[in-house]
Structures are given as C-alpha cells and as structure tokens.
Design goal:
Chain A: FAD binds at residues 62-64. The complex is a heterodimer. Chain A is of the alpha/beta class. Helices cover 29% and strands 32% of the residues of chain A. The mean pLDDT of chain B is 94. Classes of the chains: A alpha/beta, B alpha/beta. Bound molecules: flavin-adenine dinucleotide (2 copies), iron/sulfur cluster (2 copies) and FE2/S2 (inorganic) cluster. One iron/sulfur cluster binds next to helix 3 and helix 4 of chain B.
Chain lengths: 280, 463
C-alpha cells in the first residue's frame, strides 16, 4: 500500500499526487513510468514519473481524469492509500551529448515532458519549451516550465492565453528563425506527435517521441503495448517509452490505442479526454 | 484383492455444454469412495516404475497404499515429502507422459489415476487440516527469491521451514506466477494457489509484490545493499513470441499472455471487472500446447466460436491429453496442418487469417516428421480475434541488469542441473527461467533442489 502524501488539482481535470514509494523513488529517472492500481479490484494503468524525491522516498504523478481508473484514483485523498504502485518502468530519456533541445508538450503530455525538461536544464542544456493547451483553463505547470526553460512558448487552440495556434506552428517558426536544435523531444497525444514529426522531418531534426500505448504488466510479458518502429515490433514498456519519431508507425499506434473504445465509457471519453482533443 | 477394472474411475466433471459457458472448475474431484476404489487398482509394484516417471519421485505406491486404507492425511504427508504443491500438480501435471505413463496397469488398459488420487489427497488435507504451520525459529540468514511461480514458492517453502528469513519479490500485484495469471480458474481455482501462498506466509515468508527485479532493485543491490546472502531466480519464461507475419499488430491480435492475464489476473471474465477484454465472435488460436488450449477454452467461455490452428497433426499436439479432450468436448474446432502466413485486416481490425497448408514430411534422422508447406495451397479462416500461443522465452530484464550472469543464446539462464547454481556466486536459478517454458512439476522440483544447495552453501559459509 502506497500512501498519498500530497494531492493538488492543477486544473479541473488534471491532478498531481505525491506518493510514498521509497523503492521507486530510489531508482526513478525522467522518462520512466509507474503502473498503479488505485484499488484492490482496479485496472492497472501506467503513469509517467513527473518527479521524485529520493530522500523523502516519494514519487510524483500527474494524471488527467479520462475514465474509470483515473476517476477512481482521483477519488482518493491525502492520507489514503494506492493499492499497487510498481516501477520505475521503461527506459530513462537519453540526455547525453545534448546541448540545445526543444521540448514540445501537449496537454497532460506536459506533465510527462516537464521532468525531462528539468533534467536537461539541470545538466546545462539549453531548453526551449513549447507547450500547447486547448484553452487557458487547462494550462498546467507554467511556472515550473518557465523555471527550467531558456525559452517558453505557450500556445492555446483558442488564443485565450499565449499565442493562438498549435505547437507545430510555434516549433516551425523557431526552426525557421534559425534555432538549431540537436533534438526535439515531444510528448502528447499521438496525433500531435505525428504532426511534430512531420515538421521535424522536413528540417531533418532528430526527434524523440514518448509513446503511451495501452499496457497491462509493463515488464514485457503481455505484448499489448507493441508498436512498429522502423519496421520492427517493439514493446513500449521495455524498449521505450521513448522512440525515434521518424521510425514510429503512428497510424498503427492510433488504431491500436482505440482497441477498447467500445468498452470505455464513450460519454466520459468525449467530455474529458483532452489528450486526444487538445490539438484538434 | 486389487480392483482389476481396466478403466480408471471416471472424473466427475461439469457437462461440456454447461461448463463451456462458465469459469468454474471443470473437474470436480473424486469422492472418498471413488478414491479408495481407484487406489485398489494399484498393485504396489516392488520395482516402482511409476515413481521413476515422476520428476520429483513422489512415493506413489506408498501414498496410494494409505489411500486404500482410508488414511488420507497420512497419504498427504507422504506426498509432501517430495512435492510442495500436490493440489496443483494433481490437477495440471501431464501425467500421461510422466508417472502414469510408466504405470504397469497401463500396459493392458488404463494406468492408475495417480494424478487424480494426488489431487484428492491434497484437497482432503486442505479441507480438513486448517492449522497454520508453525513458524520455525530464525537462523539469521536472509534469502531473496525472485518470482512467485511454482519454482519460487517451492524454494521459499523449503528454506523457510529450515528457519531462513525468506522474501519473495514479485513483479505483478499478485503472487503465484503462471498459476495466478496464466492457468485459468476452471482448471486451477485461484483459491488453491492462494492457500499455498498463505501457508508460506504463515511460515514467515514475506511476499513483496510490485517489485521488478532489474528495475526496482537489481540483483547486486539485493546482495550488497539489502543483505541477502543468496538469491534464487525463478522469474519464469514470460516473454511472448510473435510470428512476425504481416498484420500481426492489427487490433484483435493478442498474445496468449495478454489475453489470459486480462482474464485471470485482472478477472475480466467477471462481468464487473474494471479491465476490458474483447469478447470475440470468432477466435483463431495459433499453437498446440497447454497455453493454446487455455486461451481457446477461455475464448469459448466468452462466447466465441473457436478454432485452434496448428501446423502439425493431432498426434503431435504438445498439450496434456486431458486438455485436448476437454477442448474438443467443449466444441472447439481444430484446423491441423495449417500455418498462418498473414493476418488480413479491415479498418484496423482482424478480419481473417491466411494459412499455408502443410503436410508432414517423411521422418528425418531424428525420427521427427517435420511440417512442410504444400506448394500453393492456402486457406483463409474468418475471425475477429487471433491469439498467438506459439511459445514464450525468458524475459531479458534480469540478464541485462546483472553483470556476469551467463545465459544461453535464447535467453535461458545457465544453471547447474543439480544445484541451480548460476555463474554468479550465491545466485541460483530454476524453473522456466532456466529451461524455457516447461511444467509446474519441473519448476517446483528445481526450486526444491536449489533450496537444498542454498542451504548447504549458507551453512558452510557460516562455519
Ligand atoms: C507509458 C505511459 C505513460 C503515461 N503517463 C501518463 C501521465 O503521466 N498522465 C496521464 O494523465 N496519463 C498518462 N498515460 C495515459 C494513462 O495511462 C491513461 O490515461 C489511463 O490509463 C486511462 O485510464 P482510465 O481508466 O481512466 O480511462 P479509460 O476510459 O479506460 O481510457 C481512456 C483512454 O486511456 C487510454 N488507456 C486506457 N487504459 C490504458 C492502459 N491500461 N494503459 C495505457 N493507456 C490506457 C486509452 O487510450 C483510452 O482510450 C500514460 C500512458 C502510458 C502508456
Ligand atoms: C497458460 C499456461 C498453461 C499452462 N498449463 C500447464 C499445465 O497444465 N501443466 C504444467 O505442468 N504446466 C503448465 N504450464 C507451464 C507452467 O505453468 C510453467 O512451467 C511454470 O509455471 C513455471 O514456473 P516458474 O516458477 O519457473 O515461473 P512462473 O510461473 O512463470 O513464475 C515466474 C514469476 O516471476 C515473476 N517475475 C518475472 N520476472 C520478474 C522480475 N524481474 N522481478 C520480479 N518478479 C519477476 C513473474 O511475474 C511470475 O509471477 C502452463 C503455462 C501457461 C502459461
Ligand atoms: S507430481 Fe505429477 S508426475 Fe509426480 S506423481 Fe504427482 S501427478 Fe505424477
Ligand atoms: S506402477 Fe501403477 S500399479 Fe504399480 S505401484 Fe505404480 S501406480 Fe501402482
Ligand atoms: S505492457 Fe505488457 S508487454 Fe508492455
């Protein structure tokens, strides 16, 4: 059982939790994730490690309420316990040798992108963060991003904050203006990452994408998280979640992520799932 | 006077047409009367051929003798000398190729139903003897076990009984290994597995779920930082194989591991489970082992029309004979001599499977008849779900995070056959992690053998 030390609503549908999980905190690195079951009969869901404190033995997660499992999780409060919490899983984001990076996040994907941006900043990399949200009410981690970014560009679909438009517009503009990135790291809805790769391919800037397929075990046992990368089948939970964006078959990944659509409450899905609506 | 009937006492079972719609146990178990009647078919052979067929040498004639006399608890104690999981092995051992294959009664007629008797005895014990085992005094040595499958459970049990301070680390949220996430409820009720685990806990064994060794903690940390004197790796062979054919990543294509895990571990067969499972209309299962039979019978129970596609013939099916028989009775179809070459999709979902027709070659030097393609002959089987059950191999996670741990090319950990000792001092391994996908009884036997060697090693070091 894993105690919730802190709970904070970042926006109406995104929650931050700091969880007591010393064994996970000991080893966690940016880019890795955990799998949890909120309650004894709950579903196993993967969430990225948004932060960790090795001394306190805590791990921070930031999640968007999109369906049954995240709803159950959100119903827990400070002092309550998460039934299962396993990790750190997956490979850490590679940061070696980087000097200047654009981090492109969409919606709750920003929660996943933030620890990577922070780590890059901490090791002296020049970080340009481009984050996108549907509207100003949904913005998360603004101060945090600003603190670790040499440049921070905020985009909203409706122009209610920052600039109006998509993260791809902002990225293209920066590249056009002469910014030379060693790498672009992008995390967000599949469709957004696909379009980011569309831009970076044009300019031939290496791009790392963080894939989030449906998972069960997170250890390479079920094969449910498989993707086609460079024509080969890869398991996102052990071979990823980061992959070379130029190699990923996004169309297949989008089809696979819809496997359980008919099972997931449609209404809820349509109402809340920013992950997918963010860039429409 | 022995019972000279040529046939085994029949196993009372749920009717095929009833059971293929529920997940309750298929075989209901002998009554005491049937058990005694069956025990009387045993001739108590002096040369004990049956014992030589059992991988852990259960004293078969001796335990059956006690059953004859209605002394069931005594029979249980005899089995317990060699086996840690009789209620499990009595249910899932491939008896027809082990103990029962060697039984003299099998020369003319059916062998003695050794497995069914073992199950009866274990169930009798579980139902009637509820006292928790007494926790032995600690001897101060710490042991870590990786994985809670049959090998890990057996190793933990034997060491705990000797007073070792044993901790099992399990990656999933529930202990039991394949017994919990793979083999379905209707073949092995999960309450039986839970009982074994509760028994270990009563002996003082700690079970830490949600710990992935190699990720959360490495083997070196277990030894150097956590102070475990020895480590046993019983991590199984959980990495699913795919066929690498076009269309394999279409929606509706599962590995058997995913399909079975959703159903068993996540209880997706219960209507109110939080974990989604596809309820296929028609499912094609690829493979011919126990895993394929389990996947097929689960799909059937979810309401599908099921076809097992296998590239050889019925004679070569590696599954337990009883499972094949049960599957057939439950209305599962077989398409023998077929090998999938392409999965055909529509709107991202599986629509059909294209199979190459095969035939068996003349026996080669090894006497094996290999399947070879019949030039130009293909079949297309319509389905909305395809489940790959073509085997698994050991997960590379532990190897890749443990310096100096030698493995075979295919991933199996190299370990001494008698002791389970690996290329790392104080690190032992056994079960599917060493042999590749095998059987419960072999995994259990390997766990026991390693426990013995680990005990000797730690006692010698202490001197
Ligand atoms: C490596 C990884 C890291 C992730 N990190 C984050 C994060 O930091 N914050 C965050 O908000 N979300 C994250 N996600 C997505 C998160 O796991 C899903 O939003 C969550 O599982 C939804 O569950 P639900 O029952 O609430 O919703 P449901 O109604 O069940 O599903 C809504 C959508 O979530 C996805 N989903 C459902 N079940 C799973 C599952 N078992 N595994 C993966 N995706 C699933 C599907 O695309 C589905 O359409 C991550 C996913 C992965 C694979
Ligand atoms: C569907 C199915 C049906 C079967 N039917 C039969 C049958 O009828 N008869 C029979 O004799 N055999 C059968 N088998 C085979 C039998 O179940 C296995 O041979 C046996 O379970 C192997 O035991 P094990 O202890 O080696 O490993 P497993 O039972 O595989 O257990 C390994 C455990 O280790 C855990 N683990 C793995 N890696 C790590 C890690 N890094 N850190 C922590 N934990 C880890 C896993 O989660 C798992 O719980 C079947 C197998 C399957 C899949
Ligand atoms: S353990 Fe298995 S092989 Fe041995 S006697 Fe029992 S059923 Fe037969
Ligand atoms: S071989 Fe058969 S008849 Fe002989 S002792 Fe063994 S079980 Fe009994
Ligand atoms: S989540 Fe099961 S293999 Fe990746």
């Amino acid at each position: 059982m894993y105690k919730i030390i802190q709970k904070k609503a970042l926006n109406p549908t995104v929650t931050l939790m700091e969880v007591d999980a010393p064994l996970v905190a000991r080893k966690a690195e940016p880019g890795q994730f955990i799998i949890l079951r909120a309650s004894e009969d709950g579903e196993r869901i993967p969430l990225t490690i948004a932060g960790y404190d090795r001394e306190k033995g805590t791990v921070t997660i930031i999640f968007q309420i999109v369906g049954g499992a995240t709803e159950t999780l959100n119903a827990l409060n400070e002092g309550d316990f998460i039934h299962d919490f396993v990790g750190p899983l997956g490979k850490a984001t590679e940061t070696e040798g980087l000097k200047k990076v654009a981090v492109v996040g969409g919606g709750v994907g920003c929660a996943i992108a933030y620890p990577v941006a922070k780590k890059l900043h901490d090791i002296g990399v020049e970080v340009h963060s481009i984050v996108g949200f549907r509207n100003e009410d949904l913005i998360i981690l603004e101060d945090e991003f600003k603190a670790v970014s040499d440049k921070y560009v905020l985009m909203t679909d409706d122009g209610s904050a920052g600039e109006k438009g998509l993260v791809t517009n902002a990225l293209e503009k920066l590249i056009e203006s002469g910014e030379e990135y060693d790498e672009v790291i992008t995390i967000g809805p599949l469709i957004m990452m696909k379009f980011v790769v569309g831009v970076t391919k044009k300019y031939n800037v290496k791009t790392v994408v963080s894939m989030n397929p449906i998972m069960v075990d997170g250890t390479g046992m079920c094969g449910g998280c498989r993707l086609t990368v460079g024509g080969q089948t890869k398991f996102a939970c052990v071979d990823g979640p980061d992959f070379d964006g130029f190699e990923v078959d996004f169309d297949e990944a989008m089809a696979r992520s819809a496997t359980y659509k008919p099972f997931e409450q449609k209404a809820r899905e349509e109402a809340c799932n920013l992950l997918k609506m963010e860039v429409k | 006077m022995p019972n000279m009937s040529l046939e085994k006492n029949k196993m009372p079972s749920q009717e095929p047409d009833v059971r293929n719609k529920n997940f309750d146990e298929v075989a209901l178990g002998y009554t005491a009367e049937m058990a005694i009647d069956e025990a009387n078919r045993c001739l108590h052979c002096k040369h004990r051929p049956c014992v030589s067929g059992c991988p852990v040498q259960v004293d078969i004639p001796e335990f059956i003798e006690e059953v004859k006399n209605g002394r069931f608890e005594e029979a249980y104690q005899i089995i317990s000398r060699s086996s840690s999981l009789p209620a499990v092995c009595g249910r899932v051992c491939p008896q027809e190729s082990q103990c029962e294959q060697k039984c003299v009664r099998g020369i003319k007629g059916e062998p003695v139903a050794i497995g069914r008797l073992e199950r009866f005895v274990a169930d009798y014990h579980n139902a009637n003897f509820k006292d928790a085992p007494v926790k032995p005094a600690s001897n101060g040595h710490k042991v870590a076990i990786i994985g809670s499958g049959p090998s890990g459970l057996a190793c933990a049990g034997d060491l705990a009984k000797k007073g070792y301070d044993v901790t099992i680390y399990e990656a999933l949220h529930l202990a039991g290994g394949v017994l919990a996430y793979g083999i379905p409820e209707f073949r092995l009720p999960k309450s039986i597995v839970q009982k074994e685990i509760d028994g270990l806990k009563a002996l003082g064994v700690k079970v830490e779920t949600n710990v992935v060794i190699g990720k959360t903690i490495s083997i070196d940390e277990l030894k150097d930082e956590f102070g475990y004197e020895t480590v046993f790796i019983g991590s199984g062979a959980g990495l699913p194989k795919f066929m690498n054919i076009p269309g394999e990543n279409l929606n509706g294509v599962y590995s058997a591991n995913e399909f079975l895990t959703r159903i068993n571990l996540m209880k997706a067969y219960l209507g109110d489970s939080k974990t989604p499972i596809m309820r296929p209309k028609s499912a094609v299962i690829v493979g011919g082992g126990n895993v394929a039979m389990d996947a097929a019978r689960c799909a059937k129970r979810l309401g599908a029309d099921v076809t097992i596609v296998y590239r050889r013939t019925k004679e070569e099916l590696p599954a337990r004979a009883e499972e094949v028989e049960h599957a057939e009775e439950e209305g599962i179809k077989f398409a023998f001599l077929n090998n999938p070459v392409e999965v055909i999709g529509e709107n991202g979902w599986v629509k059909s499977v294209k199979c190459q027709q095969m035939e068996l070659s003349e026996p080669d030097e090894s006497g094996r008849r290999r399947p070879v393609a019949v030039e130009g002959a293909f079949n297309e089987i319509e389905c909305d779900c395809m489940i790959m059950s073509i085997g698994t191999s050991p997960n590379p996670l532990i190897k890749s995070t443990t310096e100096g741990l030698d493995t075979q090319k295919w991933g199996g950990i190299i370990a001494d056959e008698e002791t389970g000792l690996t290329s790392r001092e104080g690190v032992y391994a056994g079960g599917d992690a060493v042999t590749g996908a095998a059987t419960v009884i072999l995994a259990m036997g390997a766990g026991k053998a390693a426990a013995k060697a680990m005990d000797e090693y730690m006692q010698n070091r202490a001197k």
